[in-house]
Structure formats: C-alpha cells, structure tokens
Design goal:
Largest interface: A-B, 31 and 38 residues
Largest sheet of chain A: 5 strands, antiparallel
Strand content of chain A: 35-45%
Structural class of chain A: alpha+beta
Distance between the termini of chain A: 11 Å
CATH topology of chain A: Jelly Rolls
Shape of chain A: elongated
Oligomer: homotrimer
Number of strands of chain A: 8
Number of helices of chain A: 3
CATH class of chain A: Mainly Beta
CATH superfamily of chain A: YjbQ-like
Helix content of chain A: 10-25%
CATH architecture of chain A: Sandwich
Order of helices and strands of chain A: EEHEEHHEEEE
Strand order of the largest sheet of chain A: 1-8-3-5-6
C-alpha cells in the first residue's frame, strides 16, 4: 500500500551559482524517514533555475559548473527576448538543459544516492531570488 | 491508497521549433482533476524531440530556445550518422540534452507548476512529425 | 492498489562512450513483467556518468553523441577542479546535462518506449568504471 506526502517550501535566496542543498532539503522534508521504499520528486517552480544531482564535496566543482553552463548558454546580443536583462534568456536555456525536477529513490528512510551525490540548486539569475520547491513523496511506509 | 491512469495521445504535428502545449496536454488528460495529490509523468516516445518546462508567456523565448539549442548541437559535417538528413543527429543530441520525460506534481486536481511555467514540446526535425506521448498519473484520488 | 519493487545492480564496466543497455536492464529487473501499469525509475548513483533514452539501432549515433558531448563540455585548462584528471570535470558537466535518472512508463508488463528508443549508459570517464543503478518500480500489478 502506498502513502503520499507533499510539502512546498522556499529555499534561502541566492545569487547566480550552483549550491549544495541536500541538508536544506532533508530539513524541509523529514517525512523521508517514514518510508521503507519510495520515490521523492523535487520540483522547482521556476524557469531560470534548475535542480541537479552532482558532486557533494569540492566547492570548486560548483564554481566550474556555473562557468561551464555560461559557455553552453552565453550571454550576448543574439537573443530576441532581452527585456528582462542579459542573464534572463541564458537562464531559460540552462534551465531546460539542467532540468527542473529530480526523482530520487528512497530506501529504508533515506535518499538512496551515491556516496558522492548531492542535491544542487542552480541559480541562473544574477540577483538573489527566493525559489520554491514542491516535494512529493510516494512510497511504502515503514 | 493510490490510483493510476494512463493515456497515450498524439500531439498535432509541428515543424522544427519549441511549442507551448500545456493546454493540449490538459485536454488530453482530464483525469488530472480527479487527484488530490500525485505525479503526472509525460513521456515522449521519440529520439529527435523533447519535453521541457519553461516560460509560458513570451513566444520569443521559444524562438530563442530553438536557436540556442542549434548552437549547442549545430548541424555540420562532423557527424558519422548522416543518412537521415542534417537535422537528424543534432536532433538526437538535443533530445538527450533536453530530455524526453517530465514528472510534474499534482495538487488539488491541478498541475502544481509555477506561475511562469508551461509544458513545451521541442521538435528537432525540420519537417512536421506526429509525436506520441504516454501520460501516466499516479496519486491519491479526491 | 500499488506495489513496489526495488533492485540495485551494477552494470558491466565500460570506458568512455555511450552504450545501449536496454537488454542488460531488462535482465536485471524482470519484475517489470508483473505490472499492468506503472513507472520504473532508473537512477545511476554517480556524478560522471548519465542515463538517457535515445536511438536503439545505429551504433554511429552513440559515437556521434559521445563526440557531441565532448564539444558541449570540452576538456581544457579552464577548470579549477582538475586533480582527478582532465576528463573528470567535463564528466560532471555532461552528467548534469544528460541527467542521472529516467522515469519510464510500464504498460502490460513492458516498458512503453517508442520503436526507436533504447536505454543508454553514458560513461564520461576514460577508464572503465563499475556503475550502480537503483531501479524502483511502482505500479498496479497484473
């Protein structure tokens, strides 16, 4: 038999860059520990930010990722949609490249991620934005 | 207790570009309104098209996205797989970049997307193709 | 009523490239055939590999994809995180571009993928690595 939990929460506002938010997510969704097996879907309700899983140790990886995404979707005068600032349209491209949701397995009350995996917020706008996440857990309770 | 609905449908054929299809999806999957909480998975059964969530307002964003994806995976004579036309292999690369499925939370009978988020079809082939989507809903009914 | 199955398995080790692993996955997760309708989530527990769906026929497409991802995230001296080799940081960027999980619909005991779709492992490190996948099935049993 399956149970459901759904929680909406805001992340603390951050300026452009990649951030490790595993701890922040786990604090907002303590219900994970009640599930023996299941899936948590994390969904960010924005179009110039993204969620991804990547390395959870060396902060330089996050700095390099931010720069690499700038090379993949550079600012420039080649966009039509330019009214919201030079960082806006590149942000939309990065958002569709990185994605806005994650589906992560739960096993014995914990995220069943690899040793080196952490949850990242990728913020693509220069100025700090408050980003909202809908977390939906579905699984079999302990 | 969880319920399931699964619907397969075709999108109206479109030539290369990015398209807002939220309304078309909602018309094909009216079952969404029966769920108090859940997840809808939209899965496009193709390898040179993609599904993404992005800005639902200014059509210029879709035009810019199509051009940005052309820069990320340009046509050219650097592909071995070239028999199906110059737009084919770039289409495969874009498909793996953007992705072919979306998992979107449902809350109180509605997609729980952000204010500015819409569902996009990204068509990567020049000529019009009819694309099939498998929509799978899992959740707790109202 | 929903059932759950969860299986963790290792793929046979491979060096850098894209590989069709549909058959390997189906052998590791025979439980798929027990489900009338559902979703399988495949989650790779690594940060320099990825999972994607793409063309299941011509091996040249996999060769071209590997080269295309090299153009999207090239090796070079522009990374700060360089201690683990020149292929490491590009691998992290590709992993967040391609993604580490897939959610695929199940219908009548089979993956409901398109005719030309196969499951790919994208290995981004030069040397062979053993990669672990967590497969989680949720659905209505037959």
């Amino acid at each position: 038999m399956s149970s459901w939990d759904q929680v909406t929460f805001s992340l603390s506002p951050r300026s452009k860059g990649c951030y490790l938010i595993t701890k922040e997510v786990l604090e907002k969704v303590p219900q994970i520990k009640n599930y023996e097996v299941g899936i948590i879907n994390l969904f960010i309700q924005h179009t110039s930010a993204g969620l991804t899983l990547n390395e959870n140790c060396d902060p330089d990886v996050r700095t390099d990722m931010d720069a690499a995404l700038d090379r993949i979707a550079p600012e420039g005068d080649h966009y039509i949609h330019a009214d919201e600032g030079p960082d806006d349209m590149p942000g939309h491209v990065k958002s569709s490249t990185v994605g806005v949701s994650l589906s992560i397995p739960i096993t014995n009350g914990k995220l069943n991620t690899g040793t080196w995996q952490g949850i990242w917020l990728c913020e693509f706008r220069n100025y700090k934005h408050t980003r909202r996440i809908v977390a939906t857990i579905n699984g079999k309770r302990k």
